[in-house]
Amino acid sequence: MIMSLGPYASFIVTSYAAVALVVVILIGWIVLDYRSQTQRLRELDRSGVTRRSGRSAVDTP
Amino acid sequence: MTLIDLANPTRFLALTARVLPWLAAATVILLTIGLYQSALAPDDYQQGATVKIMFIHVPNAWLSMFVWGVMSIASLGTLVWRHPLADVAAKAAAPIGAAFTFLALLTGSLWGRPMWGTYWEWDARLTSVLILFLMYLGLMALWRAVDDPSRAARAAAVLTLVGAINLPIIKFSVDWWNTLHQPASVMRMGGSSLDKSFLIPLLVMAVAFTLLFVTLHLAAMRNEILRRRVRSLQMMQASRVAFSSEMGTGSREETASKGAA
């Protein structure tokens, strides 16, 4: 079944594409930020810096 | 697990690790159902197929206000209860709220061009949502401008609570002023005026987007906790370096004075 979007198809498609793009950017930013923070914690852990509790810097249960 | 238990960031990280995969899966499933129902929804007798833009515009518009509401409660948590995760929650929500507000403005504009004949009109609803978007950007700038997270948190909390005045203005702008934007058709006295064929996909998409926000917010809060952990460890490392170099200088000076004697 082919969906007919009428004379304003470009407005509808652009709306959905924009929402998809922004949501993908948000997800990508959060995933990359998580990787960056865990990477920095690993580097600190390797350099011997530990938390006051004595736990490893990368200790995220 | 109570709210007090979650005050411990380590416990919160454990909770997010368990909950995030389920939330992400539920979001994907609901979004798929919502998009399928939106695609199958009939054309409106006035708007034609353009009504499909409503299925993404309305959830984003709801979330733009809902996220500020969440940030306002978190701000109370910072100022009144001093909950350790309150400012983490507020800071993590701001960019997500800004993205939803931007999408509400953009999709509304793309709907307005064919329906109203214009992308933009300075009416009360559109202008108050634009102000909300600018406030999100201002809040994000404030968080970046102040180095100390606890000082930034208090200033941002005050600004958020002042900005919350805009929420009822946005909601009731269509009743208080004569606007081009249509009045409420879902949440209104006397029930929704929408036909079920439009209301059901709209509600499914609204729940799906709300779940998307909860998922992204928890993930962003987890990132913020890790960022603060990195910051405190880096400060600890810097103070150790400063202390050891001070000790080194002190012992050298002591040796030099002994040699001179």
UniProtKB/TrEMBL annotation, chain A:
An annotated GO BP: heme transport
Superkingdom field: Bacteria
Gene Ontology CC annotations of this record: plasma membrane
Claim: Transport is one of the keywords in the record: yes
InterPro entries in the record: Haem_export_protD_CcmD (IPR007078)
Main location: membrane
Compartment(s) of residence: Cell inner membrane
Record keywords, A-Z: Cell inner membrane, Cell membrane, Cytochrome c-type biogenesis, Membrane, Transmembrane, Transmembrane helix, Transport
Chain ranges passing through the membrane: 12-32
Membrane topology note: Single-pass membrane protein
Entry function: Required for the export of heme to the periplasm for the biogenesis of c-type cytochromes.
Family named by the database record: Belongs to the CcmD/CycX/HelD family.
NCBIfam families for the chain: cytochro_ccmD
UniProt name for this protein: Heme exporter protein D
Automatic annotation (TrEMBL), chain B:
Predominant subcellular localization, coarse grouping: membrane
Domain of life: Bacteria
Protein localization: Cell inner membrane; Membrane
Record-annotated membrane-spanning stretches: 12-36, 61-81, 93-112, 124-143, 155-178, 198-221
Topology within the bilayer: Multi-pass membrane protein
Cross-referenced PANTHER family: CYTOCHROME B_B6 PROTEIN-RELATED, HEME EXPORTER PROTEIN C
Similarity field: Belongs to the CcmC/CycZ/HelC family.
Name the record gives this protein: Heme exporter protein C
Gene that this sequence comes from: ccmC
